[in-house]
Amino acid sequence: MNKIYERFAGLFIDSEGGVELLKKHRNVIRTFFWLFAFAGIATILVFVIDVAFGLSGESAAPSAIGSALSTKKPLGELLGPFGDFFGGVLNPIFTFLTFFGVIVTIVMQRVELSHTKDENTRNAAAQTVRAVENTVFNLIELHHKIIDGLVFSRSMIPQPQMDVIRRNSGQPPLPDVITSGRAVFGEVIIGLTNLSSTAEIVAAYKSLQNRNNGVMGHYFRNLYQALRIIDDHHEPILPLEIQQRYANIFRAQLSSAELAILFLNCLDGMVDHGEFKRLLIKYRFLEHIPLERKGTNYSYSGNGRTIASPEMISQYVMDSGDRAGLPSERISAFGRNPEVLDLVKSV
Questions:
Q1: Are 320 and 303 within 8 A, CB to CB?
Q2: Which is more confident, 92 or 181?
Q3: Which has more pLDDT, 326 or 304?
Q4: Alpha-carbon gap, residue 119 to 164, rounded angstroms
Q5: Nearest-CA neighbor of 279 among 312, 322, 219, 313?
Q6: Most buried among 34, 75, 148, 266, by the most CB within 10 A?
Q7: How far apart are CA 70 and CA 72, in angstroms?
Q8: What is the pLDDT of residues 265-284, one digit of tens each?
């Protein structure tokens, strides 16, 4: 019986994903199967009863075969009564089967429509994923074009202490240097880390962004929009691991100096209301920033000079419960960066 049912169920499956359809509509298909089985058994029983009672002469409407045997009349003369009895009983059954066939057709159409809807949903999701991928890679291309157009003047970051030292020693002021392209980030790092404290570094960077936002403002806005696009297309469109993969691809485009400047750019009070920083934390965007512990502070490995304090580092740490979709743990923008792991755990 199970094999018969499987063959019957196969009538409803003629497209990809049929196994899922069978599971989804198992109860409906099983009901139809038993109704068909009942109709078939009823037809056979009517025929057997007609023949059996006709042969014994007990039928109210004896069959043609039974009458022919008992009365010795030609079979042809008795086919009419046999047909009347057999047809009279089976006509309602066949009428029911006709109606039932219409119902089956409707149900099959509903099953196919359901499958088509599911397919369309999957296709739409796949198209959305492709659109996100194209957008991300277009933004990466734009990212590099923006870098190529950067221009920075050393005079944009005042060096009062250095100027005093040079003046007292009879040396001329530092000459202004114009830098362009990716070298801008390294030059900004040099200018900032020449200052004597992390508080001065933060103040100088904030002044640079306020007075000369045109230098790197569009660079950071493009980076923020890229992360926003990745983050906005969350599950079920993009699982968290796929979002992280796209963020990692974008992060791989940034140099060490860019990561260091990005760290300063998203400190409290620098930009927006913390939205950019939350994205950096969620996607562990600063994991590869080259920091080294130097006394109570942290230096930038590129030049060995202080660039961050523990208070600045702790701004990039939060509980995962503050951001939906993250594992339940203490997380930071520095990921598994070994230089700050102990500090992150203690925050």
A1: no
A2: 181
A3: 304
A4: 72
A5: 322
A6: 266
A7: 6
A8: 999 989 888 999 999 999 99
Amino acid at position 333, single letter: A
Contacts 24+ apart (CB under 8 A), 94-103: 96/39, 97/39, 100/32, 100/35, 100/36, 100/39
Report the alpha-carbon distance of residue 189 to residue 80 in Å, rounded.
Answer: 107
- Residue 59 phi/psi, 5° resolution? -75, 140
Residue 58: pLDDT band (50, 70, 90) is very low
Nearest to 29 by CA among 6, 49, 46: 6
Q: 252 versus 3: which is more confidently predicted?
A: 252
What are the domain boundaries of the chain? Answer: 2-124, 149-346
**HEC profile for the chain?**
CHHHHHHHHHCCCCCCCHHHHHHHCHHHHHHHHHHHHHHHHHHHHHHHHHHHHHHHCCCCCCCHHHHHHHHCCCHHHHHHHHHHHHHHHHHHHHHHHHHHHHHHHHHHHHHHHHHHHHHHHHHHHHHHHHHHHHHHHHHHHHHHHHHHCCEEEHHHCCCHHHHHHHHHCCCCCCCCCEEECCHHHHHHHHHHHCCCCHHHHHHHHHHHHHHCHHHHHHHHHHHHHHHHHHHHCCCCCCCHHHHHHHHHHHHCCCCHHHHHHHHHHCCCCCCCCCHHHHHHHHCCCCCCCCEEEECCEEEECCCCEEEECHHHHHCCEEEHHHCCCCCCCEEECCCCCCCCHHHHHHC
* List of residues 6+ apart from 61 with CB closer than 8 A: 81, 84, 85, 88
Residue 344 structure tokens: 């992150």
The model's pLDDT over 63-79, given as tens digits with 9 standing for 90+, comes to 445 554 455 555 555 55
Looking at this protein, which amino acid is placed at residue 29?
I
**Would the pTM of this model clear 0.90, i.e. be above it?**
no
- The CA-atom distances, in angstroms, between 312 and each of 72, 276, 346 are 113, 15, 14
Task: Label residue 40 by pLDDT band (50, 70, 90).
Answer: confident
